[in-house]
């Protein structure tokens, strides 16, 4: 029971290098769209984000070709982002720093001593249940269906660094004790001798039909779940240059989509 609860928490936690110059807050930027009116917006503590930036710099050797840490805005499962322009910003009581999203909804987060001291937050003008911030660590030049092990390892380290800053101290201690290590990412070594599953789940851009990990002449089929593949990032016998090759599931036929749309209302009507 305890093991399942901790693994569930870890799954929830798995939910940004930056310019050298520090960013200055803009008190009078009329381009900023205020999101204070949105109830329960998607946000992260800026101090937690800085912990992620620090971890990226510390372990950059895992993914040396990734120039800087970025975030990406994603719709949550079954949700849409809507037509209103997306606006992300670092928000404090006295100032706001706008964050520029590119066409792929990705952005970098600058370092700001003022934002850190003010305990600012990174905020999106969407509700938590509608959208989320995701870290984005990916070596340039990779095909859409390929992922590098070192990139995924660094992405895990950044995610965990951010999560540790946002969860209570006692939860940190609980997980440290369960894993017998403070390096949580190293715990995900793959299948255990007793048949347990200690793999790290990573998102893919589309639903998968297969995934294979390759490292030289060695290869291993990976477990998949929808748009996620499961990787033994803590197994150091796989090098940082090992590659995951994905096979995407074929798109649903129009008839299948129509059938799913028709069955959804019927299922709702017959539900108790």
Protein traits:
4-stranded antiparallel beta sheet, alpha+beta, disordered N terminus, 6 helices, 272 residues, disordered C terminus, 28% helix
Question: Can you describe what's shown?
Answer:
The N terminus and C terminus are likely disordered. A hairpin with a 2-residue loop joins strand 14 and strand 15. The chain has 272 residues and is of the alpha+beta class. A four-stranded antiparallel beta sheet has the order 1-6-3-4. The chain is globular. The longest helix has 18 residues.
> Which of globular, elongated, flat, extended, rod-shaped describes the shape?
globular
| Major sheet summary line | 4 strands, antiparallel
Low-confidence stretches: 1-8, 14-37, 266-272
How far apart lie the N and C ends? 29 Å
- The helix content is 25-40%
- From N to C, what is the helix and strand string? HEHEEEEHEEEHHEEEEEEEEH
Tell me the structural class: alpha+beta
Q: What's the mean pLDDT score?
A: 83
Question: How do the strands line up in the largest sheet?
Answer: 1-6-3-4
How many helices?
6
The overall strand count is: 16
Beta-strand share of residues: 25-35%
C-alpha-based Rg, rounded: 20 Å
